[in-house]
Fold these 2 entries.
Entry 1:
Amino acid sequence: MTSARPRIAILGIHLESNAFAPVSTGEDFRASCYFEGDAMIIEAARPAPAMPAEIPGFIDEMNASGAWKAVPILITATEPGGPADAAFIEETLARMRTLLRAAGPLDAVYVSNHGAMVSTADSDPDGALYALAREAVGPDRPVVATVDLHANISQRMVDNADAIIAYRTNPHVDRRERAAEAAVLMRRLLAGERLEKTFIRMPIAAPTVTLLTARGAYADMIVEGQRHVGADLPVVSVLGSFAFADAPEAGISILTYGKGEKPKRVALDLANFAWAQRERFTVRLTPLDGAVARAVEAGRSGRNSVVCLADVADNPGGGARGNTTDILERLVGEGAQRALLGNFVDAAAAARCHEAGVGAKLRLVLNEGSADAHAKALPVEVEVLAVSDGNVTGRRGMWEGRALRLGASAAVRTGGVTVLVCTRRVQCADPAFFESLGLDVGSFASLTVKSRGHFRAAFDEWYPDEAIVEVDAAGLTSPILERYAWKALRRPVWPLDRETQWTAPRLEDL
Ligand SMILES: [Zn+2]
């Protein structure tokens, strides 16, 4: 049994790793979010905290639900990118261990992580993080975690946590709520309750665009899972997983926590459903030609907010660079008018726009000196419409109320296309990015976003589902999984390998 004022450690590392993207360095983490000790609590209390929303969400619910003592350890996060530098992860875990030991006796640990991290040395650093949390409190005190629904769940994570609670919305607008749910469950576990766990991982590497929660097979799984939640089954987590981590732990997973047979039955039913519905985890994108034609037509129509092109293959939110030129080049080349595009990540171009100043006309070469197979060097004549320091507070969607940093940014016009050029790699998932540069999203005929799906919760006031076109273009996050050289992903896996087989486990074996 625990004290009247339980001491709960809070820690976490957030990274969604795309194995095909450049390494995520310690510098990347430190520049995005790195807080230790009391600095975590101070940041969490700010109006727009520069940290994952789970941390303030957990703290607020714990504060609201009784006495406790927060023991802030360390939280760090960075934008989705390549595998984490192993030295940084080792150093961070060691630092956490030191701080945990110095913290004195603990009653519990709350872990906030993404769950799809790989490092340059390890396919499961999230498992190491959970093992560290378990080590800090021993076998009998609770460890509760929250993860992104794109987490790749390892056996090590399952073994070391009393419960893992996953987001249930994609776009992810329920991060605070899931952390609050973790706090509520923490109170129950601190009172002595214990839950049995059931874990099933499926050989399904679902392309990211098939994992929306507004519609589709995955959405159906979330709804069905929640229908069974009750006193004897407090947690049903359905993980869509993140194939691009190229890890053996990838695959749609179901985790239930509860008592008796019901949690096992619900997990098994969900797994059987996923397998029966596997055809719905296949992708159909719009070819580039057709998509660009829609934007050109929109410009001629005289109407606003006609079509939104989602550049799903170049989504910084999945580790891509945000600098491919396929769509932009075609929009300009075919004379699209009143087209808006963001966020194009090119630090050098943004700096040149700042030097030139508002109103200047200049020739830019996008990706100059940094071109690669997907991101061509593209010369464009531009007029600088506006510049900003890129410090923005999220207005709508996943990042509402969160401090975001695009770095030096500019709005430029080239032909009939207005482009948001920025320095830091951030997916286009908030209208505040455009608004901070004086651009009115609703005054354009088309919008092109470098985002896979999170933009949907941000731009839905102009672009409902039926106005969105997912474009087949080049990049590091194309949902056409056949285009990648997989190394560690467990094969065969659906839908990459059509011959994939799966046999349901027996209820009594779960
Ligand atoms: Zn996610």
Entry 2:
Amino acid sequence: MKLHVPDLRKEEGKFITYNSTLVLSIGGNEEGPALKINLQAAYVAKMILIKGHWEAEMQGECSRCLEKCNYQIKESFYEEFKQLSLISEPSERDSGNVSEEGDLFVFRGDTLDLNEYFRQSFLMSQPLKILCRSQCKGLCPVCGVNLNYRQCSCLEENLDPRWELLLKLKEKN
Ligand SMILES: [Zn+2]
Ligand SMILES: [Zn+2]
């Protein structure tokens, strides 16, 4: 995703809305996840401010039951990029024309290339745990059956022996 800076400079101080889908390349995979980006950008005092949010539909494996499932990642952002000069320097790097100086993002030239920024944002927003549903019951630790579909009796069988006696008494009645 690239912003044309002169468009923003013409309307200095005003937020302009951009909607875009960015297909990320991750780990050599050119057809990686697609981020749906909703972004507002403004040029203010040689800075480009961006704010908004993105979301991505993902496929993965539930950490409890190991079934394939779809999940969604959403992230909001607010960032500033300082324009150092109007002249772009030829860059051989894949990461576009943005670099970091201290804790500030800087760029040179007429174009603000946000691809690498969003790639990093995506990599940092990976969930620690993927769940197919919030109430996923997972797998039985004894027989491995998926407890969302079937109930096994392993946990009953592994009850405390004192309870077992009570259960037997109950069965007799
Ligand atoms: Zn699950
Ligand atoms: Zn079981």
